[in-house]
Amino acid sequence: MIPAVLPTYARADIGFVRGEGPYLWGTDGRRYLDFGCGVAVTSLGHAHPKLVKALKDQVDKVWHVSNLYQIENQERLAKRLTAATFADSVFFCNSGAEANECAIKMARKHFYAAGQPERFRIITFEGAFHGRTLATLAAGGQAKYLEGFGPKAEGFDQVPFGDLEATEKAIGPATCALMIEPIQGESGIRVAPPDFLNGLRSLADKYGLLLIYDEIQTGVGRTGKFMAHEWWGAKPDIMSVAKAIGGGFPLGACLGTERAAAGMVVGTHGSTFGGNPLGTAVGNAVLDIVLADGFLEHVVAMGQHLKQQLAMVAEQHPKVIEEVRGIGLHLGLKAKVPVGDLLAAMRREGLIGIPGGDNVARIMPPLVIERTHIAEAIDKLGRACAGLAP
Ligand SMILES: *Cc1c(COP(=O)(O)O)cnc(C)c1O
Fold first, then answer.
1. Do 248 and 336 fall within a single domain?
2. What is the sign, positive or negative, of the torsion defined by CA atoms of 198, 202, 204, 205?
3. Whole-model pTM?
4. Looking at ligand 1, which atom is closest to the CA of residue 39?
5. I want to staple 361 with a disulfide (CB 3.0 to 4.6 A). Which of 256, 261, 333, 350 is the partner?
Protein backbone atom coordinates (compact mmCIF):
# COMPACT_ATOMS: atom_id res chain seq x y z
CA MET A 1 0.00 0.00 0.00
CA ILE A 2 1.33 3.43 -0.85
CA PRO A 3 2.25 5.46 2.24
CA ALA A 4 0.12 8.53 2.99
CA VAL A 5 3.23 10.64 2.32
CA LEU A 6 4.28 10.10 -1.31
CA PRO A 7 7.34 7.85 -0.96
CA THR A 8 9.83 9.90 -3.00
CA TYR A 9 12.40 9.97 -0.18
CA ALA A 10 14.35 7.13 1.44
CA ARG A 11 13.85 8.34 4.98
CA ALA A 12 15.96 7.32 7.97
CA ASP A 13 13.98 5.72 10.76
CA ILE A 14 14.11 8.76 13.03
CA GLY A 15 12.40 12.10 13.47
CA PHE A 16 13.28 15.16 15.53
CA VAL A 17 11.15 16.87 18.11
CA ARG A 18 13.25 19.87 19.13
CA GLY A 19 16.32 21.80 18.10
CA GLU A 20 18.58 24.30 19.81
CA GLY A 21 21.76 25.76 18.31
CA PRO A 22 23.73 22.91 16.69
CA TYR A 23 21.71 20.20 18.48
CA LEU A 24 18.61 18.20 17.59
CA TRP A 25 16.65 15.91 19.90
CA GLY A 26 15.40 12.75 18.21
CA THR A 27 12.18 10.76 18.63
CA ASP A 28 14.49 8.12 20.14
CA GLY A 29 15.20 10.47 23.06
CA ARG A 30 18.83 11.03 22.05
CA ARG A 31 20.64 14.29 21.33
CA TYR A 32 22.33 14.73 17.95
CA LEU A 33 24.94 17.18 16.73
CA ASP A 34 23.48 18.52 13.48
CA PHE A 35 26.27 18.97 10.93
CA GLY A 36 23.84 18.83 8.01
CA CYS A 37 21.52 21.74 8.81
CA GLY A 38 18.65 20.28 6.82
CA VAL A 39 20.90 20.46 3.73
CA ALA A 40 22.56 23.80 4.48
CA VAL A 41 19.31 25.52 5.47
CA THR A 42 19.39 26.10 9.24
CA SER A 43 22.76 27.80 8.95
CA LEU A 44 22.33 29.81 12.15
CA GLY A 45 21.44 26.72 14.15
CA HIS A 46 18.02 25.73 15.47
CA ALA A 47 15.76 28.15 17.32
CA HIS A 48 18.18 31.07 17.08
CA PRO A 49 16.68 33.62 19.53
CA LYS A 50 16.90 36.49 17.02
CA LEU A 51 15.17 34.50 14.26
CA VAL A 52 12.52 33.23 16.67
CA LYS A 53 11.82 36.79 17.82
CA ALA A 54 11.67 38.18 14.28
CA LEU A 55 9.14 35.53 13.23
CA LYS A 56 7.05 35.80 16.40
CA ASP A 57 6.90 39.58 16.17
CA GLN A 58 5.68 39.37 12.57
CA VAL A 59 3.18 36.60 13.42
CA ASP A 60 1.37 39.03 15.70
CA LYS A 61 1.18 41.71 12.97
CA VAL A 62 0.23 40.27 9.58
CA TRP A 63 1.07 36.88 8.00
CA HIS A 64 0.31 37.36 4.36
CA VAL A 65 -0.61 40.03 1.88
CA SER A 66 -0.46 39.75 -1.88
CA ASN A 67 2.39 41.10 -3.96
CA LEU A 68 -0.25 43.45 -5.37
CA TYR A 69 0.61 45.63 -2.35
CA GLN A 70 3.68 47.16 -0.76
CA ILE A 71 5.50 44.74 1.56
CA GLU A 72 7.87 46.63 3.81
CA ASN A 73 9.94 43.63 4.98
CA GLN A 74 10.42 42.51 1.38
CA GLU A 75 11.55 45.93 0.20
CA ARG A 76 14.01 46.22 3.08
CA LEU A 77 15.44 42.76 2.39
CA ALA A 78 15.80 43.53 -1.32
CA LYS A 79 17.65 46.78 -0.58
CA ARG A 80 20.01 45.00 1.79
CA LEU A 81 20.68 42.14 -0.64
CA THR A 82 21.43 44.54 -3.48
CA ALA A 83 23.68 46.62 -1.22
CA ALA A 84 25.64 43.50 -0.22
CA THR A 85 26.02 42.03 -3.74
CA PHE A 86 26.54 42.82 -7.44
CA ALA A 87 22.77 43.01 -7.96
CA ASP A 88 20.34 45.90 -8.49
CA SER A 89 17.00 44.09 -8.12
CA VAL A 90 15.54 41.00 -6.42
CA PHE A 91 12.56 38.70 -7.05
CA PHE A 92 11.40 36.68 -4.05
CA CYS A 93 10.02 33.14 -4.13
CA ASN A 94 9.83 30.16 -1.78
CA SER A 95 12.47 27.68 -2.87
CA GLY A 96 15.69 27.10 -4.76
CA ALA A 97 14.10 25.63 -7.87
CA GLU A 98 11.81 28.64 -8.15
CA ALA A 99 14.76 31.00 -7.78
CA ASN A 100 16.45 29.18 -10.68
CA GLU A 101 13.25 29.26 -12.75
CA CYS A 102 13.28 33.03 -12.35
CA ALA A 103 16.98 33.16 -13.28
CA ILE A 104 16.32 31.16 -16.47
CA LYS A 105 13.30 33.29 -17.39
CA MET A 106 15.21 36.51 -16.68
CA ALA A 107 18.09 35.49 -18.97
CA ARG A 108 15.80 34.48 -21.83
CA LYS A 109 13.60 37.55 -21.45
CA HIS A 110 16.65 39.82 -21.48
CA PHE A 111 17.45 38.75 -25.03
CA TYR A 112 13.81 38.71 -26.13
CA ALA A 113 13.44 42.30 -24.93
CA ALA A 114 16.68 43.18 -26.73
CA GLY A 115 15.24 41.94 -30.03
CA GLN A 116 17.08 38.58 -30.04
CA PRO A 117 14.34 36.06 -29.19
CA GLU A 118 16.36 33.31 -30.91
CA ARG A 119 18.85 33.39 -28.07
CA PHE A 120 17.34 31.17 -25.37
CA ARG A 121 19.81 28.32 -24.82
CA ILE A 122 21.76 28.03 -21.57
CA ILE A 123 25.03 26.17 -21.07
CA THR A 124 25.20 24.21 -17.81
CA PHE A 125 27.75 21.81 -16.32
CA GLU A 126 27.92 18.06 -15.82
CA GLY A 127 27.14 17.11 -12.23
CA ALA A 128 24.99 20.20 -11.76
CA PHE A 129 21.91 20.27 -9.56
CA HIS A 130 19.50 23.15 -10.04
CA GLY A 131 16.23 21.75 -8.65
CA ARG A 132 13.32 19.42 -9.43
CA THR A 133 10.99 21.47 -11.62
CA LEU A 134 10.89 20.49 -15.30
CA ALA A 135 13.13 23.37 -16.43
CA THR A 136 15.64 23.09 -13.57
CA LEU A 137 15.86 19.30 -14.09
CA ALA A 138 16.75 19.96 -17.72
CA ALA A 139 19.32 22.52 -16.57
CA GLY A 140 20.84 19.97 -14.16
CA GLY A 141 20.86 17.40 -16.95
CA GLN A 142 21.08 14.34 -14.66
CA ALA A 143 19.56 11.35 -16.42
CA LYS A 144 18.51 9.65 -13.17
CA TYR A 145 16.24 12.58 -12.28
CA LEU A 146 14.95 13.25 -15.82
CA GLU A 147 13.95 9.67 -16.67
CA GLY A 148 10.25 9.06 -17.09
CA PHE A 149 9.09 12.64 -16.98
CA GLY A 150 8.52 13.18 -20.68
CA PRO A 151 10.61 15.17 -23.11
CA LYS A 152 13.42 17.11 -21.46
CA ALA A 153 12.70 20.85 -21.46
CA GLU A 154 14.37 22.41 -24.48
CA GLY A 155 17.26 24.84 -24.33
CA PHE A 156 20.03 23.43 -22.14
CA ASP A 157 23.45 22.27 -23.31
CA GLN A 158 25.88 20.56 -20.94
CA VAL A 159 29.65 20.57 -20.87
CA PRO A 160 32.17 19.11 -18.38
CA PHE A 161 32.54 21.03 -15.11
CA GLY A 162 35.76 23.05 -15.14
CA ASP A 163 36.32 22.81 -18.91
CA LEU A 164 36.60 26.30 -20.42
CA GLU A 165 37.50 25.07 -23.87
CA ALA A 166 34.41 22.84 -24.06
CA THR A 167 32.32 25.75 -22.80
CA GLU A 168 33.54 28.06 -25.53
CA LYS A 169 32.99 25.36 -28.18
CA ALA A 170 29.38 24.88 -27.00
CA ILE A 171 28.52 28.57 -27.43
CA GLY A 172 26.34 29.08 -30.52
CA PRO A 173 24.09 31.75 -32.03
CA ALA A 174 21.19 30.59 -29.79
CA THR A 175 23.17 30.71 -26.52
CA CYS A 176 21.99 33.32 -24.02
CA ALA A 177 23.66 32.37 -20.75
CA LEU A 178 26.08 30.22 -18.76
CA MET A 179 24.73 28.79 -15.49
CA ILE A 180 26.89 27.28 -12.74
CA GLU A 181 27.16 26.42 -9.05
CA PRO A 182 30.56 27.81 -7.89
CA ILE A 183 30.74 24.65 -5.78
CA GLN A 184 28.59 21.71 -6.87
CA GLY A 185 26.86 20.63 -3.68
CA GLU A 186 24.55 17.72 -4.46
CA SER A 187 27.16 16.00 -6.59
CA GLY A 188 29.63 15.94 -3.70
CA ILE A 189 31.26 19.33 -2.91
CA ARG A 190 33.06 19.78 -6.23
CA VAL A 191 34.80 23.15 -6.12
CA ALA A 192 35.20 25.01 -9.43
CA PRO A 193 38.89 25.28 -10.44
CA PRO A 194 40.70 28.51 -9.40
CA ASP A 195 40.36 30.43 -12.69
CA PHE A 196 37.13 28.89 -13.89
CA LEU A 197 34.57 31.53 -12.88
CA ASN A 198 36.83 34.30 -14.18
CA GLY A 199 37.16 32.35 -17.40
CA LEU A 200 33.39 32.05 -17.69
CA ARG A 201 33.06 35.80 -17.03
CA SER A 202 35.47 36.50 -19.89
CA LEU A 203 33.57 34.16 -22.22
CA ALA A 204 30.27 35.80 -21.24
CA ASP A 205 31.71 39.22 -22.02
CA LYS A 206 33.32 38.07 -25.27
CA TYR A 207 30.10 36.53 -26.65
CA GLY A 208 27.60 38.90 -25.00
CA LEU A 209 26.11 36.21 -22.72
CA LEU A 210 24.69 36.47 -19.22
CA LEU A 211 26.45 34.64 -16.39
CA ILE A 212 24.18 32.97 -13.83
CA TYR A 213 25.39 31.64 -10.49
CA ASP A 214 23.34 29.16 -8.48
CA GLU A 215 24.36 30.04 -4.90
CA ILE A 216 21.39 28.29 -3.33
CA GLN A 217 23.61 25.99 -1.27
CA THR A 218 26.83 28.01 -1.15
CA GLY A 219 25.43 31.49 -0.44
CA VAL A 220 24.64 33.45 2.72
CA GLY A 221 27.89 32.79 4.56
CA ARG A 222 28.31 29.03 4.10
CA THR A 223 31.85 29.30 2.68
CA GLY A 224 33.01 32.25 4.81
CA LYS A 225 32.11 34.90 2.21
CA PHE A 226 28.60 36.30 1.93
CA MET A 227 28.48 34.61 -1.49
CA ALA A 228 30.90 31.82 -2.45
CA HIS A 229 31.80 33.38 -5.82
CA GLU A 230 33.56 36.19 -3.94
CA TRP A 231 36.42 33.70 -3.38
CA TRP A 232 36.93 33.71 -7.17
CA GLY A 233 36.07 37.37 -7.69
CA ALA A 234 34.16 37.17 -10.97
CA LYS A 235 30.69 38.67 -10.64
CA PRO A 236 27.56 37.21 -12.25
CA ASP A 237 24.69 39.02 -13.97
CA ILE A 238 22.04 36.88 -12.29
CA MET A 239 22.19 34.79 -9.09
CA SER A 240 19.82 32.48 -7.26
CA VAL A 241 19.75 32.16 -3.48
CA ALA A 242 17.54 30.06 -1.17
CA LYS A 243 18.19 27.53 1.61
CA ALA A 244 20.06 29.56 4.31
CA ILE A 245 18.50 32.93 3.44
CA GLY A 246 15.35 31.88 5.35
CA GLY A 247 17.15 30.11 8.21
CA GLY A 248 14.54 27.32 7.92
CA PHE A 249 11.60 29.40 6.73
CA PRO A 250 10.93 28.68 3.01
CA LEU A 251 12.43 31.63 1.13
CA GLY A 252 14.21 31.99 -2.18
CA ALA A 253 15.45 34.93 -4.22
CA CYS A 254 16.66 35.67 -7.72
CA LEU A 255 19.01 38.64 -7.97
CA GLY A 256 19.94 40.47 -11.13
CA THR A 257 21.71 43.53 -12.43
CA GLU A 258 19.54 46.26 -13.92
CA ARG A 259 20.77 45.29 -17.40
CA ALA A 260 20.09 41.54 -16.98
CA ALA A 261 16.65 42.15 -15.48
CA ALA A 262 15.58 44.63 -18.16
CA GLY A 263 12.91 42.31 -19.60
CA MET A 264 11.20 41.53 -16.30
CA VAL A 265 8.50 44.19 -16.41
CA VAL A 266 5.02 44.19 -14.83
CA GLY A 267 3.19 40.92 -15.47
CA THR A 268 6.18 38.84 -16.61
CA HIS A 269 6.61 36.80 -13.41
CA GLY A 270 4.95 36.23 -10.06
CA SER A 271 4.52 34.15 -6.92
CA THR A 272 1.62 34.07 -4.46
CA PHE A 273 3.71 33.47 -1.36
CA GLY A 274 7.08 34.77 -2.56
CA GLY A 275 8.53 37.44 -0.27
CA ASN A 276 5.60 37.39 2.12
CA PRO A 277 5.89 39.29 5.42
CA LEU A 278 6.80 36.22 7.51
CA GLY A 279 9.55 34.92 5.25
CA THR A 280 11.14 38.28 4.66
CA ALA A 281 10.99 39.14 8.39
CA VAL A 282 13.18 36.07 8.97
CA GLY A 283 15.36 36.89 5.96
CA ASN A 284 16.13 40.30 7.42
CA ALA A 285 17.01 38.73 10.78
CA VAL A 286 19.33 36.29 9.00
CA LEU A 287 21.13 39.22 7.35
CA ASP A 288 21.36 41.06 10.70
CA ILE A 289 23.49 38.16 11.92
CA VAL A 290 25.42 37.08 8.81
CA LEU A 291 26.39 40.63 7.79
CA ALA A 292 27.38 41.71 11.32
CA ASP A 293 31.04 42.59 11.86
CA GLY A 294 33.21 39.53 12.43
CA PHE A 295 30.61 36.90 11.54
CA LEU A 296 32.14 35.73 8.26
CA GLU A 297 35.62 35.80 9.85
CA HIS A 298 34.24 33.37 12.45
CA VAL A 299 33.03 31.07 9.65
CA VAL A 300 36.48 31.16 8.02
CA ALA A 301 38.21 30.38 11.33
CA MET A 302 35.83 27.54 12.20
CA GLY A 303 36.09 26.21 8.64
CA GLN A 304 39.88 26.09 8.74
CA HIS A 305 39.88 24.40 12.13
CA LEU A 306 37.21 21.86 11.17
CA LYS A 307 38.87 21.01 7.86
CA GLN A 308 42.20 20.46 9.59
CA GLN A 309 40.60 18.24 12.23
CA LEU A 310 38.72 16.26 9.58
CA ALA A 311 41.98 15.78 7.70
CA MET A 312 43.47 14.27 10.88
CA VAL A 313 40.59 11.81 11.16
CA ALA A 314 41.06 10.93 7.49
CA GLU A 315 44.75 10.31 8.13
CA GLN A 316 43.91 8.02 11.07
CA HIS A 317 41.31 6.12 9.04
CA PRO A 318 42.60 5.94 5.47
CA LYS A 319 40.40 2.89 4.74
CA VAL A 320 37.25 4.87 5.56
CA ILE A 321 37.94 8.43 4.38
CA GLU A 322 39.84 9.16 1.18
CA GLU A 323 39.74 12.95 1.02
CA VAL A 324 38.45 16.09 2.73
CA ARG A 325 37.34 18.90 0.45
CA GLY A 326 35.39 22.16 0.32
CA ILE A 327 35.60 25.78 1.45
CA GLY A 328 34.63 27.31 4.79
CA LEU A 329 31.90 25.24 6.42
CA HIS A 330 30.80 23.69 3.12
CA LEU A 331 32.85 20.50 3.45
CA GLY A 332 32.80 16.95 2.15
CA LEU A 333 34.35 13.64 3.16
CA LYS A 334 34.94 11.39 0.18
CA ALA A 335 34.41 7.94 1.65
CA LYS A 336 36.09 4.66 0.78
CA VAL A 337 33.27 2.68 2.34
CA PRO A 338 29.72 3.18 0.99
CA VAL A 339 28.80 6.70 2.14
CA GLY A 340 25.47 5.43 3.51
CA ASP A 341 27.42 3.20 5.91
CA LEU A 342 29.58 6.11 7.06
CA LEU A 343 26.54 8.36 7.63
CA ALA A 344 24.71 5.61 9.51
CA ALA A 345 27.76 5.02 11.73
CA MET A 346 28.00 8.76 12.37
CA ARG A 347 24.33 8.89 13.29
CA ARG A 348 24.75 6.00 15.73
CA GLU A 349 27.42 8.15 17.42
CA GLY A 350 25.03 11.11 17.45
CA LEU A 351 26.42 13.08 14.50
CA ILE A 352 24.36 14.07 11.45
CA GLY A 353 25.82 14.62 7.99
CA ILE A 354 24.22 14.67 4.52
CA PRO A 355 24.86 12.31 1.60
CA GLY A 356 26.13 13.73 -1.68
CA GLY A 357 27.20 12.34 -5.05
CA ASP A 358 30.65 10.85 -5.68
CA ASN A 359 30.32 8.86 -2.41
CA VAL A 360 30.74 12.03 -0.35
CA ALA A 361 29.36 12.77 3.13
CA ARG A 362 28.62 16.49 3.27
CA ILE A 363 29.65 18.20 6.50
CA MET A 364 27.71 21.47 6.74
CA PRO A 365 27.47 22.54 10.38
CA PRO A 366 25.72 25.68 11.59
CA LEU A 367 27.89 28.74 10.96
CA VAL A 368 27.59 29.63 14.66
CA ILE A 369 29.51 26.57 15.91
CA GLU A 370 32.40 26.95 18.34
CA ARG A 371 35.57 24.89 18.78
CA THR A 372 33.88 22.75 21.47
CA HIS A 373 31.28 21.57 18.92
CA ILE A 374 34.03 20.75 16.46
CA ALA A 375 35.87 18.72 19.12
CA GLU A 376 32.65 16.85 19.88
CA ALA A 377 32.01 16.14 16.18
CA ILE A 378 35.57 14.95 15.60
CA ASP A 379 35.31 12.61 18.57
CA LYS A 380 32.06 11.14 17.22
CA LEU A 381 33.41 10.88 13.67
CA GLY A 382 36.56 9.15 14.91
CA ARG A 383 34.50 6.56 16.75
CA ALA A 384 32.24 6.07 13.72
CA CYS A 385 35.30 5.47 11.53
CA ALA A 386 36.88 3.09 14.05
CA GLY A 387 33.69 1.01 14.01
CA LEU A 388 33.77 0.83 10.20
CA ALA A 389 37.44 0.13 9.57
CA PRO A 390 37.77 -3.26 7.87
C1 LIG B 1 18.93 22.71 -2.98
C2 LIG B 1 19.40 23.24 -4.27
C3 LIG B 1 18.49 23.60 -5.29
C4 LIG B 1 17.01 23.34 -5.18
O5 LIG B 1 16.40 23.99 -4.11
P6 LIG B 1 14.92 23.59 -3.67
O7 LIG B 1 14.63 24.56 -2.55
O8 LIG B 1 14.96 22.16 -3.20
O9 LIG B 1 14.03 23.76 -4.83
C10 LIG B 1 19.00 24.16 -6.44
N11 LIG B 1 20.32 24.37 -6.60
C12 LIG B 1 21.21 24.04 -5.64
C13 LIG B 1 22.66 24.33 -5.86
C14 LIG B 1 20.78 23.46 -4.46
O15 LIG B 1 21.68 23.11 -3.52
1. no
2. positive
3. 0.98
4. 1
5. 333
